C-alpha cells in the first residue's frame, strides 16, 4: 500500500476511482503540503505545484494499493509528471506520501488554482477524458497514452458540444428511447472503432433490441470556404485522401474546403480561423455560419461546422499550404465561382462537404445579387 497526496484534479473522488481502478474503501483525509502552492496554468485550467516556503498546498491523502499506484503512474508519467516522496501534514501530524510533480514545460500563471472553481467550470471535459482512458482495453500506458492523448481530448470535447437540434418534424427522443452497450474494446490509435449493441424505440412503439453496430468515433471539424466576393472566386484545397484510395478510386487526390479538427478548449470558429491560416495562409476576420451536421450518421460521430469566409484572394495568392509538422501536402486552387460550380456538374468535386458548401454559396450569392 502507498500513501498519496493529491493537490489537483485527483482530489475529485470519481476521477480518482476511474483512473486508479477504484479506491477499495480507502479513507480520504484532508492534508497539506508545507512549502508549496498550487497555481493555475496559463493555458487551460490545470493545477501546477510550485515551491513557496510561506504557503501550504491543500489537498487530500489516500492510501492505495500497488495496482492503483501502477495505474496512476501509467496515467501521469507519460505526460512528464514525476512521482516524489514528500512530508505532508495529515490533520496536523507529519506523514510520508507520494506526490506527482508537474513537468517544467507547463506555463505557470499568477493566480491560485481553485479546486471548487474547477468543479464548477472545467469538470466535464477531464471526466470524459478519464472515462475513455479508464475503459481502454488493454490499458493505455506509456507512449501510447501520450500519443493518443490529443485525440482523446478531441473526442471528449466533441461529446460536450453535442446539442439536440430542432425536432419540429422528427421524433423527439426521451432518454429511455435508446441504449448503447459496448460489446468489444475500441480499436484504433487516432480514430476509434467501437462495436456496440443498440436498443431503440421503433416508430410503432415496440422495441428493437440487441442490434449489432459498429461506429467510428471521430471528432468535430471546422470547414471553411474562402470566398472573394469582389473577384467572385473561391479557394479550394487539393490533397491525397486515404479513404478514396482504400475504396479503390484511381484518383484519390480530392478537392475540399479548408478543414481541420476542433481542438479541445477551442470553439469551432477559432478552429476555422486557425485552419484558414495554417492551410491557406489566410487571416480571417469574419466567418459566416453555413450549417452544422453529421457527415455520415449511419456509422460515424463526425460532426461538421461549415463557414463561409469572406476574404481577399488576389491572383498571386500562395499555391501551396499546410503544416509540415502534420505531414500536410496541400495544393491551393483559385477558381471563379462558375469554374467551381462546373466541378459539380462534371463530378470532379466529389467530396460531399464541398458540394454542400458550394450549393449553399450559390444560394447566398444569388440573394446578395
Provide the fold topology.
Layout: E1 2-6, H1 13-20, E2 29-41, E3 47-64, H2 66-76, E4 82-90, E5 93-101, E6 108-112, H3 115-121, H4 124-135, H5 142-161, E7 178-187, E8 192-201, E9 207-217, E10 220-228, E11 233-240, H6 242-247, E12 253-256, E13 258-261, H7 268-280, E14 288-294, E15 303-310, E16 320-321, E17 330-336, H8 337-346, H9 352-368
Low-pLDDT residue spans: none
CATH architecture descriptor text of the largest domain: Alpha-Beta Complex
What is the chain-wise order of helices and strands? EHEEHEEEHHHEEEEEHEEHEEEEHH
In terms of DSSP E residues, the strand content is: 35-45%
* Count of alpha and pi helical runs: 9
Q: Which CATH class of the largest domain is shown?
A: Alpha Beta
CATH overall fold name of the largest domain? Nucleoside Triphosphate Pyrophosphohydrolase
Largest sheet: 8 strands, mixed
> What structural class results from the helix and strand content?
alpha+beta
CATH-level-4 superfamily name of the largest domain: Nucleoside Triphosphate Pyrophosphohydrolase
Shape: globular
Rg from C-alpha positions?
25 Å
Measured distance between first and last alpha carbons? 74 Å
Percent helix, as a range, is 25-40%
What's the number of structural domains? 3
Whole-number average pLDDT? Answer: 92
Query: Total number of β-strand segments?
Result: 17
Amino acid at each position: 500500500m502507498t500513501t498519496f497526496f493529491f493537490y489537483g484534479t485527483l482530489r475529485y473522488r470519481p476521477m480518482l476511482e476511474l483512473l486508479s481502478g477504484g479506491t477499495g474503501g480507502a479513507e480520504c483525509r484532508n492534508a497539506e503540503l508545507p512549502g508549496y502552492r498550487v497555481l493555475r496554468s496559463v493555458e487551460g485550467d490545470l493545477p501546477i505545484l510550485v515551491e513557496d516556503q510561506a504557503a501550504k498546498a491543500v489537498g487530500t491523502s489516500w492510501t492505495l494499493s500497488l495496482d492503483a499506484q501502477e495505474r496512476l503512474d501509467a496515467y501521469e508519467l507519460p505526460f512528464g509528471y514525476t512521482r516524489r516522496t514528500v512530508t505532508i501534514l495529515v490533520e496536523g501530524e507529519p506523514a510520508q506520501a507520494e506526490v506527482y510533480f508537474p513537468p517544467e514545460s507547463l506555463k505557470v500563471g499568477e493566480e491560485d488554482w481553485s479546486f471548487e472553481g474547477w468543479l464548477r467550470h472545467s469538470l466535464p471535459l477531464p471526466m470524459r477524458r478519464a472515462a475513455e482512458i479508464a475503459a481502454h482495453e488493454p490499458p493505455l500506458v506509456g507512449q501510447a497514452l501520450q500519443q493518443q492523448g490529443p485525440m482523446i481530448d478531441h473526442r471528449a470535447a466533441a461529446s460536450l458540444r453535442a446539442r439536440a437540434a430542432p425536432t419540429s418534424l422528427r421524433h423527439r427522443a426521451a432518454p429511455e428511447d435508446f441504449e448503447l452497450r459496448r460489446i468489444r474494446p475500441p480499436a484504433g490509435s487516432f480514430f476509434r472503432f467501437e462495436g456496440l449493441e443498440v436498443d431503440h424505440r421503433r416508430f410503432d412503439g415496440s422495441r428493437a433490441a440487441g442490434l449489432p453496430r459498429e461506429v467510428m468515433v471521430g471528432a468535430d471539424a471546422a470547414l471553411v470556404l474562402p470566398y472573394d466576393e469582389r473577384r467572385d472566386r473561391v479557394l479550394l484545397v487539393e490533397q491525397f485522401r486515404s479513404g478514396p484510395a482504400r475504396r479503390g478510386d484511381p484518383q484519390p487526390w480530392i478537392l475540399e474546403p479548408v478543414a481541420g479538427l476542433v481542438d479541445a478548449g477551442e470553439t469551432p470558429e477559432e478552429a476555422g480561423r486557425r485552419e484558414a491560416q495554417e492551410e491557406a495562409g489566410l487571416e480571417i476576420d469574419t466567418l459566416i455560419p453555413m450549417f452544422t451536421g453529421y457527415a455520415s450518421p449511419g456509422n460515424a460521430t463526425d460532426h461538421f461546422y461549415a463557414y463561409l469566409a469572406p476574404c481577399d484572394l488576389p491572383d498571386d495568392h500562395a499555391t501551396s499550404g499546410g503544416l509540415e509538422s502534420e505531414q500536410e501536402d496541400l495544393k491551393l486552387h483559385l477558381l471563379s465561382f462558375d469554374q467551381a460550380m462546373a466541378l459539380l456538374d462534371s463530378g470532379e468535386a466529389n467530396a460531399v462537404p464541398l458540394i454542400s458548401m458550394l450549393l449553399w454559396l450559390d444560394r447566398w450569392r444569388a440573394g446578395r445579387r
